[in-house]
Specification:
78% helix, single chain
């Protein structure tokens, strides 16, 4: 019997968060070496992390979910909308409150986790069955 979906989501999320955050920290260090803004670390981190997250969630979390290209696009929309919200919040915390970018992004991860679970479960990976009968159960 597979682990419940919320547990699978958290396990994949822990991996992807560690991977994405590690990549962000490395790229922020690189931006410092190059003398450019930390914001240049956000886009490559986003692209690579979203692809990693999709593969992992598609393989482990929502195995029975939408496997179409449309589902892949919905998955990306969720993360890019979150990105568009995250970057201004990151700027506010770093430039306004003077929190280091690594710490500010770590704080933003908490809200991102909750939002992504709900959005992916109800929109990105929904199946035709769940479209007509409401949200899927906690499988």
């Amino acid at each position: 019997m597979p682990a419940p979906r919320p547990l699978r989501f958290l396990l994949v999320g822990l991996w992807n968060t560690a991977f994405g955050y590690g990549l962000f920290v490395a790229l922020v260090a690189l931006t410092r070496l190059l003398g450019i803004s930390y914001l240049y670390a956000t886009v490559p981190t986003q692209i690579i992390s979203v692809l990693m997250a999709y593969v992992c969630h598609r393989t482990f979390t929502w195995v029975d979910g939408d496997k179409s290209f449309r589902g892949f696009l919905r998955f990306n929309v969720v993360y890019w909308v979150m990105f568009c919200i995250n970057v201004p919040l990151l700027v506010a915390l770093v430039d306004g409150v003077k929190i280091p970018p690594e710490v500010a992004q770590a704080l933003l991860i908490i809200g991102n986790t909750v939002i992504s679970y709900v959005a992916h479960g109800r929109w990105s990976f929904r199946t035709r069955e769940s479209d007509t009968s409401g949200p899927r159960g906690q499988q």
